[in-house]
Design brief:
Length: 232
């Protein structure tokens, strides 16, 4: 049985327990910034102002190992040119863990971007999702949290051999992937996949087509709508 699955559980419908969005206001700000010059954008950063944190969203008050000057020096030598600073500062952990588990480091960065916006103390009291990769009941220590989250993601990639299915399992839980024999029909999970894949390619400096930008914008609008419904 997996320890976690961010934004959901094997036995709980995604969003059902208020597990997402946790740090929604900051995540929305990041999403809006990342959207940048996407076409047909009809809102601005100000549109995020009525969105509030859902119940259960907080920050843990525990001591953790923050990046040192040496760690930042290592990070500066990494090819993370387009990754937001709050994610890039964890590059010294992301890259070696990515190599260990043979996972694209930009994919890991994209998942962290969606899960916690790079906040290692992000904590959802309802689901007990913790840390950078929002792993259930896990340590807040960044190194441990990333190692566990990436190992789970690597396991799903090995099991399903398809990125969309692996992300669906990480988001909704593998039980739903098995039940529906594919990506479950939850709009939240499908939007999650669109956003993580967009972040991965954007952060890696890859070309993003007009169609992908439009899909990303649509997913972002859906996220805002869900946040208003769940969080008020």
């Amino acid at each position: 049985m997996p320890l976690r699955l961010p934004f959901g559980h094997n036995t709980v419908r995604p969003f059902g327990a208020g597990a997402w969005p946790r740090t929604l206001l900051t995540v929305l700000t990041l999403l809006l910034a990342a959207l940048g010059s996407a076409p047909h954008t009809s809102f601005s950063a100000g549109s995020a102002s009525p969105v509030h944190h859902c119940r259960g969203s907080t920050r843990a008050r525990v001591p953790i190992a923050w990046p040192t000057a040496h760690d930042h020096a290592i990070d500066h030598r990494l090819p993370f040119h387009h990754v937001p600073a709050d994610i890039r500062r964890w590059g010294y952990l992301i890259v070696p863990t990515a190599r260990r588990y043979h996972v694209d480091p930009y994919l890991i960065a994209g998942v962290i971007q969606m899960e916690s916006n790079g906040d290692p103390l992000a904590w959802n009291l309802d689901s007990d999702a913790r840390g950078l990769m929002q792993v259930l009941h896990a340590s807040f220590q960044p190194a441990d949290n990333i190692r566990l989250g990436v190992s789970m993601l690597a396991g799903f990639l090995a099991q399903y051999h398809r990125l969309n299915l692996a992300l669906a399992a990480y988001n909704a839980g593998p039980g739903y992937v098995q039940e529906y024999n594919g990506v479950p029909p939850f709009p939240e999970t499908r939007d999650y996949i669109v956003m993580v894949r967009y972040f991965r390619d954007h952060d890696a400096g890859r070309h993003l087509s007009l169609a992908r930008r439009v899909r990303f914008e649509a997913a972002l609008h859906n996220l805002i709508a869900v946040s208003k419904r769940l969080c008020g």
